[in-house]
Specification:
The chain is 76% helix and 0% strand. The chain is mainly α. The chain has one domain: c-terminal domain of poly(a) binding protein. It is rod-shaped and about 85 Å long.
């Protein structure tokens, strides 16, 4: 079996890891061993937090909608139930944006939801 010389591939692999670790603190950006450990950790965090980001934004939207709904005399769940009955198909992201950027329009939407709840 022929001998395999790995210097080119090994150097390329190490350069890639050190490139990914650019900007890390201390030895984590210059020592291959420490950089590899940190890059592996960082990739795990990145994967995990791409999932968590969706969770976090949903919580933020619900808080914003709830605050705006309470100004209109409704709670969050009453507003959502009213929107369903009024057949207004707005998702949380859009509702939260309207609540922050255009409170008057949100007030009209809330009024429609309130009317649908009473009917």
């Amino acid at each position: 079996m022929p001998r395999v010389k790995r210097s080119v591939h090994a150097r390329k692999k190490r350069r890639k890891v050190l490139g990914q670790a650019k900007g890390y603190w201390g030895l984590k950006h210059s020592s291959y061993k420490r950089a590899k450990e940190q890059v592996d950790h960082s990739l795990v965090y990145a994967y995990r937090d791409r999932k968590n980001k969706k969770r976090t934004f949903r919580r933020l939207w619900i808080m914003r909608i709830n605050a705006a709904a309470r100004r209109e005399g409704l709670s969050y769940n009453q507003l959502v139930a009213g929107l369903r009955k009024a057949e207004i198909p707005l998702d949380r992201k859009v509702l939260a944006d309207i609540a922050v950027s255009d409170p008057a329009a949100f007030g009209k939407i809330a009024e429609q939801a309130k009317a649908a709840l009473e009917a």
